[in-house]
Design brief:
480 residues; 19 helices; alpha/beta; 11 strands; formyl-coa transferase, domain 3; six-stranded parallel β-sheet; three-stranded antiparallel β-sheet; Rossmann fold
């Protein structure tokens, strides 16, 4: 494998950390102060943590599920203070969606084994595995009933204290609550409001509601994916939740940069569907220029690429073990043949050129797989990479978590927990910053919050409420 030297994504110290803060000198509460935990395991130390890129930025976060939560996860990992507004009556669905983080000494169901019965019988709103995926970044959690007049008034007070408001409800939801952009500007004129929903807030379909898999179908991505001459397969998970979430984070940072330069906020509307266009550009161009459908005999090609011969996923030794090989040049082909020990079949005239190898790709695949099936996938990968042939072992989640030296070297997984769940490895941002390091646990250096665990602290330390006032609101059902 390639060497594992540092590969830092460098940014100017002054690019983000000085220009985006809306409240110069306004510090986080003591709970948000860095604990000196610089290492990947969050172990304490004497040296203070370095500044973070979005340090000093406060986000009032109404997102749920994956799309919006992915955006605020990124912002939290970059140092923003993210305050999730939640409900005990209608918790975020992914809080109670299987698979769950198992109790110590037990094991949970595998991903994809979720059933409606197990979702409605969740023992706790704090063990949803998918919630853990989308809510690192040191997010806080408060519970407020927006339907209660006092709850709405409280949320308006919080808007006035924040730089950004994010939400991922169906279009018009915050307006119906009385918390739309106009209402936000009334209490915070320079607020940056980032809305994220399936179709966006404008257009004939804006009232329609989407989920990740339905959005993928509507954009055509589901139609593009599958094996040759078989029905479309699509993805089993919400791919556009990730893509849209990344762009949601970009929207937050762009809005803050605009405000730093102009002093004005704005409403930035992010559609989950439109990013899919960028993922299918070559297919769209092929249809426009060549008049070819994205589904036709032999296409899509599945694992086989038209620019590789041989190229695809090949069985390796062991149960459901695979390795991917891609020979795109004559040099790749010669190196592959040599690595396999120059078998006689490879010298046959019909395999002498790239074009002829493409014609006989199926036959070559059979020969290559007969060789790979007798060998460990990592052995094949290392042997071919040393020979200059693009190759990679197909890794599953356990491989990446427990056996990937590259991810381990970069500290990609950080062990974090909360009041209910012991520390477990959680993934971080796939970047390294030399001057303003990101952290999977954000400024708080902790895992995803338990439901409402920060309500009292936020109301006391940020809003300035007395303990008695908080207790009275809770007794009235406002904090539910």
């Amino acid at each position: 494998m390639a060497g594992r030297g540092p590969n830092l994504t460098r940014v100017s110290e002054n690019t983000l950390s000085s220009g985006l803060v809306g409240r110069q000198g306004d510090e986080l509460s003591s709970a948000g102060a860095p604990d000196g935990a610089d290492g990947p395991d969050g172990a304490g130390g004497a040296a203070p943590a370095p500044p973070m890129a979005l340090e000093g930025v406060r986000i009032l976060d109404f997102t749920r599920l994956g799309f919006g939560a992915q955006a605020t996860l990124i912002c939290g990992c970059l140092g923003a203070e993210v305050i999730r507004v939640e409900s005990t009556v209608r918790p975020d669905p992914i809080r109670v969606m299987p698979p769950y983080v198992p109790e110590p000494g037990s094991s949970g169901e595998g991903f994809g084994a979720a059933t409606l019965a197990s979702a409605t019988s969740a023992a706790s709103p704090n063990r949803g595995g998918i919630f853990y995926k989308y809510n690192t970044g040191g997010k806080r959690s408060i519970t407020v009933d927006a339907r209660h007049p006092k709850g709405l008034a409280l949320l308006r007070r919080l808007v006035a204290l924040c730089d950004v408001v994010t939400e991922s409800f169906a279009a018009g939801t915050l307006e119906r609550w009385g918390l739309g952009y106009v209402d936000q500007r009334a209490v915070r004129p320079d607020i940056v409001y980032v809305s994220m929903c399936g179709f966006g807030h404008e257009g004939p379909d804006t009232a329609q509601v989407t989920m990740g898999p339905t959005a993928q179908a509507l954009t055509g991505l589901t139609f593009l994916v599958g094996l040759p001459d078989r029905p479309p397969a699509g993805w089993s998970f919400s791919y556009l939740d990730h893509v849209g979430g990344y762009l949601g984070a970009v929207a937050v940072v762009a809005g803050l940069l605009h405000r730093a330069r102009s002093g004005r906020g704005q409403h930035i509307d992010v559609s989950q569907l439109e990013p899919a266009t960028a993922l299918s550009g070559a297919i769209l161009l092929d249809a426009l220029v060549n008049g070819r459908s994205s589904r036709r005999p032999g296409f899509p090609t599945g694992n086989r690429r038209p620019d590789s011969a041989p190229g695809g996923a090949y069985r390796a030794a062991g149960d459901d073990r695979w390795v991917v090989i891609s020979c795109r040049t004559e040099a790749h082909w010669r190196a592959l043949v040599a690595a396999m020990g120059s078998p006689p079949w490879a010298a046959q005239p019909r395999f002498a050129s790239f074009d002829s190898r493409r014609v006989h790709a199926g036959e070559i695949d059979t020969h290559v797989e007969a060789w790979t099936a007798q060998r460990d996938r990592y052995e094949v990968m290392d042997l071919l990479q040393r020979a200059g042939v693009p190759a990679g072992a197909v890794q599953d989640a356990a491989d990446r978590l427990e056996r990937d030296p590259q991810l381990a070297d970069r500290g990609h997984f950080t062990r974090l927990g909360n009041d209910e769940v012991a520390p477990l490895p959680l993934e971080g941002l796939p970047l390294r910053m030399s001057a303003t390091p990101a952290h999977t646990g954000g400024r708080l250096r902790r895992g995803p919050p338990t439901l409402g665990q920060d309500t009292d602290e936020v109301l006391r330390d940020l809003v300035g409420m007395e303990t008695g006032e908080i207790a009275a609101l809770r007794a009235e059902g406002v904090l539910s």
